[in-house]
Amino acid sequence: MKARHKRLGFLVAGLAGLGLASWLVFNALDSNLSYFFSPSDVVQNKAPTDHVYRLGGMVQNGSLERGQELTVRFLVTDTANTVKVAYTGILPDLFAEGQGVIAQGRMGADGVFIADEVLAKHDENYMPPEVADALDKAHKGAPDGVANK
Amino acid sequence: MNSRLINWFKFSSPATFYPLAGRLIPIFSVLAIVLIGVGLYMSFFVAPTDYKQGEGYRIIFVHVPAAWMSMFIYLIMAFWAALGLVFNTRLSGMMTRALAPTGAIFAFLALWTGAFWGKPMWGTWWVWDARLTSELILLFLYFGYLALQGAIDDTRRADRAGALLVLVGVVNIPIIYYSVRWWNTLHQGASISMDNGSTMAATMLWTMLIMALGFWAYTIAVALARVRSIILEREADTTWVSELAEVRR
Amino acid sequence: MSVAEFFDMGGYALYVWGSFGVSALLMVLEPIMLRSHRRAVLQRIARIIRIKAGEKV
């Protein structure tokens, strides 16, 4: 009995110690584990100014401009702030106004984020087209979720 | 000691667990085949098209069950690992060992099907966001455990080292699960959660749950089959093994 | 849905079948390999028993 209790004690203590260590590590790494900065982060100067980073948000409705060849310009918003983005290249199939997007690149001198890669971010909602249409009619123009719940 | 306690310890002996496992395998095998069969039919012929992802979203019916199982199996391994470290029973180490390869396969499938889903939808096969990275770490933990088992000759020492590795790595599981909530990720949030219900159409949800149950039944059948082989190998010198019908040729 | 449409999966054929295909492959291979491993273990044990019985003579 005693030996088993001692082993249990060591196990619990070990796991508690491990939990504490992990918590400390993740607290330290926290912001760096996020995959992208939001437009609000950029506007509040929390995003890097001199190197590549990722900007995530929603493509603002009506902001998409297709330039020459494969150049596009659009606004990324998190409903509180927006950032201008310019990108030359192929866009993913799910890229659209009102949909989530993650652009990788760096902020240009004129306040335009020059992206070298654009990924589409979709939410966790799955439904057949009829249901989507009915929802669309019910809340006209409700934006697609980008921030995780 | 009351009789309930005694019964548990009786089944912790490999000699009594072996025939029990043998009787359970056919039940779970049939369950797996039926559930996965029905699930596959529903995946392609009952679940409707998705309004945004078209037919491509159907990957969810293998991706999510595989991901769930990769995490769940690891938790079960951690349970057996803890039990083995505290009670020093041989069967605990055997069960941990028996579950690992299946867990590794599901972790691999979660990543593989995820990549095949990400490429058309996100536009990339892989990103180092918190969800994908932590699932990859899980795969490495499985590989690490299996490598450790292969490297240490003495089974008792191998079991103990493996159990410690499993328990150290168990902190990764809540990280995988909560990653999409704690950090900004490319991977979307949970479609099913305890507090928020589900964000999937009912038929889609049912299909996914049936596939998940099928994967779970498959895991039990495979793990029980594997532990029987492990028991045979480790208990080869005993009388009861030599007297087994399948051994006496 | 016609057969052709089924295999095409709305243009996502590579991704859907690449996922389901590899999953099916591994989940069929795993039990098969388990079966053959069990057979090998049983044969090895039986052989050892025969050898030991032979030594006793």
What would the keywords be for this entry?
heterotrimer, A: 149 residues, alpha+beta, OB fold (Dihydrolipoamide Acetyltransferase, E2P), 2 domains, 5-stranded mixed barrel, 6 strands, disordered C terminus, B: 249 residues, mainly alpha, two-stranded antiparallel sheet, 2 strands, 75% helix
Question: What can be said about this structure in brief?
Answer:
The complex is a heterotrimer of chains A (149), B (249) and C (57). Chain A is α+β, with helices and mostly antiparallel strands and 149 residues long. Chain A is built from 3 helices and 6 strands.
Structure description:
- Chain A is an alpha+beta fold.
- Chain A has 2 domains: 2-32; 35-138, Nucleic acid-binding proteins (OB fold (Dihydrolipoamide Acetyltransferase, E2P), Beta Barrel).
- Chain A is built from 3 helices and 6 strands.
- Chain A has helices at 2-29, 39-43, 129-138, and strands at residues 53-59, 65-66, 71-77, 82-88, 100-107, 112-121.
- With 249 residues, chain B is mainly α.
- Chain B has one domain.
- Chain B has 9 helices and 2 strands; from the N terminus they run αααααααββαα.
- A two-stranded antiparallel ribbon of chain B has the order 1-2.
- Chain C is mainly alpha-helical and 57 residues long.
- Chain C has 2 helices and no strands.
- Chain C has helices at 3-8, 13-56.
- The mean pLDDT of chain C is 92.
